[in-house]
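In the lab's daily routine, each protein ends up as an entry in a very long ledger. A line of letters takes care of the sequence, but it says nothing directly about the fold. The three-dimensional part falls to structure tokens, numbers that each stand for a local backbone shape. The outcome of that step, for a single protein, is printed below.
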Amino acid sequence: MKVSSFLSFSAFGISTILFKRKKPILGTIILTDKCNLKCKHCSVNNITAVVHPYEQIKKEMQQLYDMGIRILFFCGGETFLWKSGDKDIRDIVREAKEMGFLIVNVVTNGTFPIDLPEADLILLSLDGDKTHHNMVRGDTYDTIMENIKNATSDNICFYMAINQINKDVVKDVCRLARDTKNVRAVSFNFHTPYPDTRELALSKEEKAKCCEDIKEMMKEGCPVFNLKSAFPYLINNNFPTPCHQCVVMENGKLSTCGRCIEVPGLCDECGYFFVAEYTLLFRGNPKIIFEMLKTYLKYV
């Protein structure tokens, strides 16, 4: 992370904590909900299959930037399916950087060739070892690993949603992140149980076991892009929601925290690690502040 970016984020954090502000710093733009996969845990793919046009995306980027957002995520659907005229995902990442966003990340399922060195992080969904990943996402594991091998930069971070199918292979993904070329880290979420995927949700005891596995992997030196101080809050679902410092833009609609905020009761079962981490950070939790500084300086 550049010194200027670090200072900017530090100033934002200090003012947010001192004055209890609710101004956002992290924004996500949904480029499309079109996806080439039908993953068992996903409730938001191919609802419309609309690919939003370049001019709309650029306008949304400017709107978020004018709000003071400086960390930008591009999500789908599948982001590498986004094309508008002669523009593709690489063009829109470049424009975000030129506009002034300090960190620009892209979320992908990894089934397309990865040539995106301009992104700070490419969060690539890997949901277990080969057997368990393919149970969740179809026969895609070998394609993904080949794309990682041939990637043009080492800015990839595995992004695993832990659920009933893959809860026992958390350690495998941690070690794979440590041992795989072009992979910088691994980031976890617990499955957030939309009504049509409730059977995949973990119990409190299962979440605790997964957190112990992650902590063990941290001790082994595996590069985990999560904060262990937030684990007790995630296990017990007692972190404050929604996260006012994060917003999502989809087709001109702005939502605080995430699209799931509109599903009754779902915030109480939130499994997003970053929501716990950010809400605790901006409430001034000292352990979270220290861990986030150390983690972000290392991996971003």
The mean pLDDT is 95. The longest helix spans residues 3-19.
